[in-house]
Structures are given as C-alpha cells and as structure tokens.
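Researcher: Please predict.
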Amino acid sequence: MNKTFVTKMPNHIGAFLKASKCFASLGINITRVSYNKAVDSHMLFIDAEGTPQQLAKASEELSAIGYLRCDDDNRSVMLLEFRLKDEPGSVTSILELISAHSFNISYISSQENGTEYQLFKMGLIVDNSDKLNGFIEEAKKLCSVRVIEYNHAEKIFDNSFFYSTFVNELSAAMEISSEAKNELIVNTNLAMQILDETGVSPYRTFDSISRFAELLAASRGINFSPRITHHNITDNTVITLIEPPCGSNTAIIKSGDKYLFIDTGYACYKEEMLPIFRNMIPEFDSIEKKCFITHADVDHCGLLPIFYTVYASAKTAECLRLESNNEDGFREMNPLHKPYVRICKVLTSYTAVSAEKLKVVGDEKEISQLIEQTGFFDFGELHFELFEGKGGHLAGESVLIDYDHHIAFTGDIFVNMKEMTAQQAQYNRYAPILMTSVDTDKELCTAERTALFQRLGIGTWLIFGGHGGMKSYTIAPTEM
C-alpha cells in the first residue's frame, strides 16, 4: 500500500533524518521525497510504501513528534495583485480595506506600464484563511484581484505555505472536503516538482489552474447558462444539444418514447443539469437512463453514476473500469499528466461510474486505420455505424455516424471552436492546462479529424462535436 505524508519540516538540523528513522524502524520504504524551500520553507512530501498497519503507526508517530501538517498553523505571506486605475488616489481604498482587516503589508511593488492601469503587488501577512477569503471578496468589489503566490521572478518569501494557500484559494468557491483538499495539496506538489525538474516557470501553469477553478465556480447555480438547441431528425426523433459554459456537451436523443444520452459533462454541475433533464423529460426519474460515452475524459463522464447503463467502446470501458477500482485511468498513466488530471477530478467532484453499469459495444480490436469501423449501434429510428479513432485524442475514442439521417457524434475528435459561446471560449483557454495537452497526439488527432470528414457522404450533415455548437456541413457531389 502507498501513502503520501504531507509533513511540516521543522527548521533545524537533522529534521528529515528524524522522520527517516521513524519509517525505517517500522519497516516502511520511502519511495519519493519532495521539498523545495524556495516554494515552501516548511512543507515536506514523503511517499511511503508499507502495510496499512505500518502506515497507520507511522502517522501516529509523526503526529506525536509534530511532523504532520497542522492546518491551524497558517501564518503566511500571501502575495496579491490588484489591478487599479492609473490615477491619483486609486490605491487608497485598497489600503483602507487592508487596514480595516488588520493585515500587515510585508511587500509592495508597482510601476507604470503604459496602460491606464497599474498592477500593485502586495504581500500580506495572513494567519487565517477565512479572514483572507473575506478580504479578497470585498477587494474584488473595488478592483480585479489575483493571488500570485509563486513566481521565480518575484521575491521569495519564507513561511510562504504555498501549497496550503494555493489550495485554499482553489477551494474557496468549491465544496471540497478536507480529504479532497489534501489530495489537491499532494498533486499540486507533484505538478510543481515536474515543472521545476523541467526548468519551466510554474507561474503561468498555476495561474491557469486558478482561473480554471474560478470559471467553474462562477458558472454554478443561477449563473449556469448552457446554450440549448433542438434538432428535428424525423417526426418521431429529435436531438437536444446542451452546451454548458464549462465542460463537454451533452446530447439527448429522443426517439419515440425512448431516450439516449451522449456524454454528460462535469460532475460538479449535477445540481444544475438535473433540473434541465427533468424539465425536458418529465418522467426522467423513473425512466431507464442510458448513456453512450464517446471517451473516458473527466469532462465527459462526470454524471455517469446517475445512469443505469453506460455504452462504451472496449478501450473506454477498460479505462472506466480502472478508475472504478481506484487505479490510474489512461491519462493518469502519463506521469506528466497525472497531477493535473487528479486536480481536475477533485475540483469537479468526479466519481468513477460503477463497472457493473458498463456495456461494451463494437468489436474489441487494435485500431490500425485513423478511423476504423468496429460495429453498429441502433437506437429507435437511428442506425449508427460505430467507428473508433487511433487514439489521437484518447484511446477508445468513439464516433457514431448515421448515414441514412446524415448525423455524426464525434466526441473530441472534432470540436466546433468557431461556434463556441463567449463563456465556452474563455473556459477553453484554461482547461487544457489540466491535462498538459488536450490531445494525446495532436498531429494524429488532426489526421483523424480529416479522415472522419472523408467518411461522410454527399449531402448536408449535422455534426455534433464534443464542445461548441452543432455544425451543419455540406458535401457537394463534386467534392467526392
């Protein structure tokens, strides 16, 4: 069994030696250690391997000597950036607010930059995260505020507690448990270690993660405003496309009195999506809920646990089964991607679907062509041919094509970026950072997209991509 201990490194000689002796005396093997004083002068990450009993005993002994992280000890210097009008007195209201909250300023920096705004950077000494969150909310009413805790170009602060403060910022607007916050801290450290080892400044990466979390939170509740369109296929079949501001599209096919969902979006929007489903399908709670999943990415699979049957290709089903067993999914098997995917799963409240619900469709085989037929899938009046891509976006990626009705569901092999809403486009700027790259192989995915459109016949097609609006696409006889 493996466990990550997030420990507090005492500032004295032999501190790590003391922890190492604790593990050695219990027969526990240390598999990874991460400590970066330039990032956080106290926090030490230790990955250890042992039996559950050994690891539990190690927790007891580390707690007894004061090494396990204590959330009550939160005194830190928080670096904030205030975007203020470049005019006399603009900073006064912020200084008054800082004074009202009794924060001490440890650092301040600003200069003109040729625009009508100045970016004031201030280091505030903070001993209470709730107090800081309240201050930031009030400050945002006066100007744009960003937390920019870590940047190699900035002054390095002792006692920064970077990981705790960064995670507290991510958690401020999302409902995240203490256990989930610890998972965020561990994977933030893994991401930081990868960036440091590759010589990449982490500033842009962590800024993008922060903005991603802000977009998720800003689209919840009454601010959840998906674009919803209806597309009549026959007298008895209609496709409804739901495009949330963040995450993938969800399509609902109604054929006769039966319903099939294609992809589901993020889990964190469950309470927003369910009323939409119930409004469209009054009998939603009593029907047999079925979903076809195009591929096993977190933004497509978030609501799968509410469905009774989940249709998937063999590889997609394999990935989902791994996750249901608390093992790494396909993207997490790449160590460069793993911490970002884990962060995304925590922020979006992802829970893997039960393996018992999975039903494999199509042939299980190695894909040698860019887009290869694997079988058929019928639903109501629609007769789909099943295709699987070679894995340019993600292994197991599926495409549904109905040649009689000129319909195609492409997953993320095709994304209609030209017809995204403003919110979708903004989300699309920051989401890719959480998987290092959207596509497993960008060039291969581009070739698959070309091959996909070459599979279509003469006429006008309705193309339902993984993100963005439905695309109407016409192929004239001369193009064949």
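Model: Residues 70-74, 150-160 have pLDDT under 50 and may be disordered.
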